[in-house]
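Progress note, project year one: complex with acetoacetyl-coenzyme A.
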Amino acid sequence: MATLETGVAGGVSFALTDEQRELRALAREFAEKEIRPKAAEYDEHQTHAADVVAKAHEVGLINLHIPERLGGLDLSAFDGILVNEELNWGCSGIGTTLCANGLAAGPILVAGTEEQQAEWLGPLVSEPILGCFGLTEPGAGSDVSGISTTAVRTGDEYVINGSKMFITNAGPASWIVCFASTDRSKGHKGLSAFVVPMDTPGVTIEKHLDKMGQRATDTSAVAFQDAVVPAANRLGEEGDGFKIAMQTLDFTRPGTAIGAVGVAQAAYELALDYAKERVQFGMPIAMNQGVSFLVADMATEIEAARLLCWQAAWMIDQGYGRKATKYSSFAKRFSADTAMKVTTDAVQVFGGYGYMKEYPVEKLMRDAKLFQIYEGTSQIQRLVIAKEVFLPKE
Ligand code: CAA
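Model obtained:
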C-alpha cells in the first residue's frame, strides 16, 4: 500500500526523492547538534546566533534559493520547506534568524536585475552575511499601503526618510530592502523598493526590541534620516514596491508556515513522551482520554498543516503564480494557528511543570505566538483568502 512520502496513490504523489530525504536528514541533524543545545540559553539572553549562522552557511542550510549562476543552492520552494521545518523544530528563534535571509533575498529575486542579484545576493554565497526585509513601520503593519517612509529622487540618487519597525535581523544585517513611498498621492501604487546598505550614513538601529518569544532572533527598529542611496539600488520601477512585497510574501509564507509546523512537531513529541511517562492515579496520564485525545488532535492537525505547506510550495514550484497566493495564506493561517493550539495543549499535558521555564514547552508556546503575527497576521491571511475566494485572480 502506498503511504505518505513513500508512494503514489491515485495519481497523487507524496514521495520525497532520495535527495530530499537526505536534505531533510541533514537539517534535522544540524538542528539536533547545532541549534537545540543553544536554544534555551540564546532564548534567555536574546543572543543573536551568529555562530549558528556561520555553521549553517558552511553546510548549506541558509540562503536556499539563490540562483546557481551566482553559486547558490537554487533549491525549490518545496525543498526549502523541508529544511525550514527542521531548523524551526530545533528552535524557531534561531530558525527564524536563518530563514529570514530568504525573506530579505525575496524582493531581489522577484525584481532585481542580474546585476543587482549579483551585487547583493552573490556575497551571501561566499560569506555568512545577513540581509533584512524592511516593510513594517510603527504606523503601517498590516496596512502596507499606509507606509510613510519616503524616498525622494535627486538626480541619480534617492534620499530616504522614515522609520521601520519589528525588522527581523536588522541588527546584524549588512543591508535592508527598504520599502518607501516615491509618490504619496498614489497610495500603494506609489511604493518602491530599495536595497540600502546598513552602513549608509543616516541609517541607524534605533532599538533592539525585547520580545516574548523567538528571542534568539534580533528584531529591531530602524531609522532613516536623509539616507542617500544610488538610483541603481531601486528594485524594479518606481511604483512596483507593493507588488514586489506581495510576491515576496507569497513565496515566503509557506516557508514560514512550515516553521510553525516544526515548533508544533517539537511540542507534540514532548507531550507524547510526557503523557506516556507521567503517572497519576496509578497509571500514565496517556491512559486518560482527556489527555490522549489532546495528543491525537495534535498529531492530526500537524499533519494537515504540513500538507498545506507542501501543497503551497509545490504550487509555487509548478509556476501557479498568483493562483498560489490563496494556498500560501491557507498554509500560513492554518499552521500558525495550529502551532499556537498544539503548544498551548502541550503545556496543558505537562500541567504545572509545563508552565515552568525548567521544561521546554513554555518556550515553544511563546515562540508559536509570533507565527500568528509576522509575515501577515492570521487575520490578514483570512483577508487574503476571502479576497481570493470572492474575487479570484485569473
Ligand atoms: N501578488 C501580486 N499582486 C498583488 C498581490 C499578490 N499576492 N496581492 C495584491 N496584489 C495587487 C492587487 O491585485 C492590487 O493591484 P491593482 O492596484 O493593480 O488593482 C494591489 O496589489 C493592491 O491590492 P489590495 O487592494 O489587495 O491591497 P490592500 O491595501 O487591501 O492590502 C493586504 C492587501 C493583503 C492586506 C496587504 O497589505 C498585506 O499582505 N498586509 C500584510 C503585510 C505583511 O504580511 N507584513 C509582514 C511584514 S514582514 C514580516 O513580518 C516578516 C518578518 O519580519 C520575519
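The longest helix spans residues 241-277.
Residues 12 and 97 are 34 Å apart (CA to CA).
No further modelling is planned for this target in the current period.
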